[in-house]
Amino acid sequence: MATFNPSFDCGRRLTNVERMICQDEDLAGRDRALSDQYFEVKNVIGPAAWREVAGAQREFLKQRAICADTTCLRAVYARQSGLLDAYEQEAMNAPEVIGPENHLTGI
Asked: Which of 91, 98, 79 is nearest to 43 (CA)?
């Protein structure tokens, strides 16, 4: 059976969900894209927000693990991608922190 290339190794012992992902080109692509997105978000947010994102990712993995079909997996991946988009947008729209060395005085 053909396998595709998600963000994890399809050659190891797999759960049923991982097997579904490995055998579905669209899901494997979604998995790679979500993994990339996750690490991109890590690069643009602060430590406090990162803890929240990491917790959301753990919850995503729990939800993914209980999916019984590819429709469920597609929905879970779409939801997590939207959540990561929101975290990234929030970080991009946050005001810059100006430290004392950058603060203009006397104006």
From this structure: 91
